[in-house]
TrEMBL record:
It comes from Micromonospora echinofusca. One of its GO terms (molecular function) is peroxiredoxin activity. This is Alkylhydroperoxidase AhpD family core domain-containing protein. Transmembrane segments: none annotated. Keywords: Oxidoreductase, Peroxidase.
Length: 161
């Protein structure tokens, strides 16, 4: 399956991408741990079936020193022993925030309480924004069939400068 449309070569999409990257920069510069950012992005991307974003976040996390064991277990984080309680809370929020249509309440009170237990207000703000942003990125890539496999760590670093 080839990409339906090249978002990287279109003027309107390019303007949007700059603003999207700026929103991402706010999250990147937040006090939310970088490892948590990548794990949350990876989990939401797995749920949404976004090969491009799975490729990107797996490679970025590995380049930042994340272990292959943890990356391989993100999809089964509940059945794993390698994630902290804080990371588990963030992964639960990512799942529930991604699967909004699967539950009438969206994010459960139990998950929210766990997130609040482990993260301060700035980290919570970044985490909520991250879940929203990665879901938007997944939808962009899935709609146009942007395929995974060609991403290189740091290839969008210039967009954040």
């Amino acid at each position: 399956m080839d990409a339906r449309f090249n978002l990287f070569d279109n003027e309107v999409a390019g303007k949007f991408a700059k603003r999207f990257a700026n929103a991402g920069l706010v999250i990147q510069q937040s006090p939310l741990p970088k490892a948590t950012q990548e794990l949350v992005s990876l989990r939401a991307s797995q749920i949404n079936g976004c090969g491009w974003c799975i490729d990107m976040h797996t490679k970025e996390a590995a380049a930042a020193g994340e272990s292959a064991v943890r990356l391989n277990l993100v999809a089964a984080w509940r059945e794993s022993t390698v994630f902290t309680e804080a990371e588990q809370a963030a992964l639960a929020l990512a799942e529930e925030g991604t699967r909004l249509a699967d539950a009438y309440q969206g994010v459960s009170d139990e998950t929210w309480a766990e997130v609040r237990k482990h993260y301060d207000d700035d980290q919570v703000a970044a985490l909520v924004a991250l879940v929203a942003l990665i879901n938007a990125a997944n939808r962009l890539a899935v709609i146009v069939h942007q395929r995974g496999g060609s991403y290189q760590p740091g290839m969008f670093a210039a967009a954040f400068d």
